[in-house]
Amino acid sequence: MALIGTRRERIIRSAEKLVARGRLRSAIKEYRKALKDAPDDTNTLNRVGDLYARLNQVPEAVDLFRQIAGIYERDGFSVKAIAIYKKILRLDSSQTDIHGTLGDLYRRQGLIIEARSQYSVLAEEQRAAQDLEGARNLHRKMLELEPRGIGNMAVLVDLLAQLGELDEARDGYRFMADRMLHHGDAEAGERIYLSALGSEVGGEEFAGAAVDHLRMRFGGRVIEGEIQEKQQARRTYEQARSEGRRANLVEQQRPNIFTTSLANIPPGEEILVEIEYQQ
Up-side HSE of residue 204: CA atoms within 13 Å toward CB? Predict the structure, then answer.
């Protein structure tokens, strides 16, 4: 072991002298000899990677830096691994897969904002390259980081719809609409439901349906609806609303899309609206 150590030291001193003289390629050859005896020597690997970078041999430099980062990850030095991965991106920004690795490392450290940022960069790249499955997987990771993130869910739902994963996409639409309703933004919730129903996600189960019965239950009372021509129904509803009376209006927007409006409902009161329809 002592002989090997002494030989390595001589090789490294020789390599350092070659660097000082500007003979970078010869220095790399010497450092490579030293690495045969200690392939996981991160200091020497980093030195050789830097020399390759000075020679503008970027692929060779990137390979070595990736090797260093892998060693740090393996040995549990996440912060050092992150520093090397960021060094690679500064050298070659086309190494986009590293954003995913950085996201995972940040996530393990509990750095949610940093992890989300890295995942977002890679997801955008994958969407541009039409790698929809890869983008979907990343947006799922981002949703795990921020379960209430409406913006991320909207992108994920779009990807799911494009991939034909309609059941999960429908769940996503429900989640977004329910979040908007929970925060008191009924109009936004309605827009989300309309968007879902008007897309392939909405399915065709209500195609051609027509409402033929409406019933509203609240406070122990039951109000039976009346079928009217659309404009007349709207006038009846507006009049009841202006008079301060409880009112419910169901309108057919398109063959498979219905909306319901409620007026003068006290805060916290539970309302049940029942609709019957015919195909």
Answer: 0
Q: For the beta carbon of residue 73, count every other beta carbon within 10 angstroms.
A: 19
Measured CA to CA, the distance from residue 35 to residue 26 in angstroms comes to 15
Element (H, E) at 60: helix 58-74
Return the C-alpha torsion angle 128, 130, 131, 136, nearest 10.
80
Integer-rounded Cα radius of gyration of the chain: 31
Amino acid identity for residue 70 in this structure: G
Among 127, 118, 72, 71, residue whose Cα is nearest residue 95:
118
For 198-257, the DSSP string reads: TSGGG-STTTT-EEEEEEEEETTEEEE-----HHHHHHHHHHHHHTT--EEEEEEEETTE
**Pair of tokens at residue 158:** 């779009």
Beta carbons of 275 and 214 less than 8 angstroms apart: yes
pTM of the model: 0.69
List per-block mean pLDDT (blocks of 10 residues) for the chain, which spans 279 residues.
67 93 95 92 96 97 98 96 98 96 96 95 95 94 87 88 87 80 68 64 47 66 70 80 78 60 72 64
Beta strands in the chain (DSSP E): 210-218, 221-224, 247-254, 257-263, 271-278
